[in-house]
Amino acid sequence: LPRETYRFGLGAFTYICIVDGTLEVEAGQLFANAPKEALTRAYREHNIQRGEAVFPIICLLVNTGLHCMLLDTGCGSGAGPAVGRLLQNLRAEGIDPRDIDSVILSHGHWDHAGGNIDEEGRPTFPNARYVMWKEEWDRLASDSELGQPDDPEAARTRQEIIALQDRMDLVEREGEILPGVEAIPAPGHTVGHMALMLSSERRKLLCIGDAAAHPIHLGQPDWHMAFDVAPEEALRSRRRLLARAVAEDALVFEPHFPFPGVGRVTDEGGYWQWQPVG
Ligand SMILES: [Zn+2]
Fold first, then answer.
1. pTM for the whole thing?
2. Mean pLDDT, to the nearest integer, of 107-115?
3. Theoretical Cys-Cys bridge with 34: which of 28, 39, 133, 202, CB 3.0 to 4.6 Å?
4. 248 Cα–ligand 1 center, Å
């Protein structure tokens, strides 16, 4: 079986990348505005067959010494056979859901925030405070959004997030939310999409969320996804984050890149390259 967890350390922080499952999407959805020839070439270079992109959903457990923190909760156990393995993979690493004191949601999409409520309807991480960007919460909680016809997974995820209201801390400005954990607004994929910079002893990990979803987005930083709600803004957020990773010599974590989703980005002058680690 392929590995589903990957441990590493940076400074005094320890990290575990944990697979929740895999998604298959029509690759064209990831590169909505790509010119056809360049796209065909990119598919060939990245071995994308029949226009189908298969990618992992990876959550990140961070032990800072002070906090046991989880970034994103995957799809949840009821979302289909290919996903929902976060809890079993956590337990296999000796982590009990009750150990986690902070759950950070990068954004409200069901493949990142779908695992917040268990099959009995209780919070999956009963001792955790939840954190998300305020605009994302406002979007999910607004009546207009709830009234939208939508796919059932998105609707379920939204209702489950709203049910966590009493445990939810909303971030309104860039800055430290826990010691060594900085919230960074990265709007565009969704209105309240959030990145994180984790630092310990000057060793940094920048979690860029869905500011990019495939390594092709680094080589072609102007190609946006069909699901980006504000494409121009999404591309600005992507460029700002990648430039910051290079400037601060940070490793990067991206939850859909090939497992474990950790690597370095190099500045190639107008575009970036992905150097995976692990
Ligand atoms: Zn995603």
1. 0.96
2. 95
3. 39
4. 25
